[in-house]
# Entry
Amino acid sequence: MCFLRIPALFGMSFLILAANAIQAQEVVLRVEGLEPQTRVLNLGQLLALRHQRVQESRTLGIAGARTENVVTGSMTGVLLADVLKAAGFEKLDRHAQRASAIVAIADDGYQAAFSWAEVFLNESGTGMLVLWERDGLTLKAAEGPLALIALKDARPGPRHVKRLVALRIVTGGR
# Structure
């Protein structure tokens, strides 16, 4: 982290956390498999896309008793489909699009796969988000600076890609 010291005003000095400004310059997401070359989207380009803010909630209750959904926080990001469109996915031949899979890759090599139909045709696609923020703050180092989550999965954990660095498009042949 980096701190900036602001000159004293009325005998007081102020520290400003500059990590967000530095982090924004370094955050990139590679989109591989699109011709003619890998596309790189920086945080500014992701922020320019239509944001989604999703409320996180947990169901509380005991089996057989009344249950209640309690809001526990929020996440901000952009739909995976919108990221793919911004990278030029729609320029692929329509047959190549339909026979493709999207592999999300973390910086430690962890991978999770998504089909074209899941992302673009099913209700599940409306819950696939590339995140950069939780509860109004940038993601913690253990999860970010970018992450991908599939909120509509019955068990979202296996396809929660923390420290997301790349999306690889794998197209099937005819």
Remarks:
- The two ends are 50 Å apart (CA to CA).
